[in-house]
Amino acid sequence: MQKSFFYIVALTFLTAVGCVGNKTGQGADKSKAKDSDTIVADSTLYGKVAIDEMGGQTFAFLPDSQSSVLTLDRGNNNIFGDYEGSHENDRWAVTINKKGTPEASVAQAINVTQVREFTRAFHIVNGQLVLDDSTFVQVLSMDDDSLVFKDLKTGKRDRFYRAAE
């Protein structure tokens, strides 16, 4: 009987201690999120260029998510990679200024297929090239031989060269 009483007291004590550590802030204001908790939606569109569709200052783009070609003004020379020489299966990452309006233009376009020829350790967030999962860079130029960029944190310029085949 004494052993049963001891086990019941010990179990009650452990249960009480466990409940104290698991209190939830039911009265806390959950609308206050830290800046680091804020999630920003990626505005990058992925797809292919539709070179035969237009000419001149037009950037013709067929997003994966749509069935019709977007015709955009080329914008301020923020097209990185070979647009006219783009192959049918080249993947592009594009962000758009004034989306959904007649004045829509390319904010930034990156030939993803061409970037893969220089490095595989990258992804794109909101049209911004990110190297090695954390280094945000500004693409300065990209041609058949090299990809030139500037680290946005340090300001240091660097370059990737195409690997010899």
Number of strands: 11
Count of separate DSSP helical elements: 2
How many separate structural domains? 1
- The mean pLDDT is 78
Bin the strand percentage: 25-35%
The sequence of SSEs as H and E is HEEEEEEHEEEEE
Poorly predicted runs: 20-36
The coarse silhouette is: globular
Query: N-to-C terminal Cα separation, in Å?
Result: 83 Å
Strand order of the largest sheet: 3-2-1-5-6-4
Written overview of the protein:
The chain is an alpha+beta fold. It has one domain. It contains two helices and eleven strands; from the N terminus they run αββββββαβββββ. The protein has helices at 2-21, 112-116, and strands at 45-49, 58-63, 70-73, 79-80, 92-97, 105-111, 122-125, 128-131, 135-142, 146-151, 157-161. The strands form two sheets. It has a six-stranded mixed sheet. Strands 7-8-9-10-11 form a five-stranded antiparallel sheet. The relative contact order is 0.11.
Question: Keywords for this structure?
Answer:
five-stranded antiparallel beta sheet, 2 helices, 11 strands, 35% strand
Draw up the topology in text.
Layout: H1 2-21, E1 45-49, E2 58-63, E3 70-73, E4 79-80, E5 92-97, E6 105-111, H2 112-116, E7 122-125, E8 128-131, E9 135-142, E10 146-151, E11 157-161
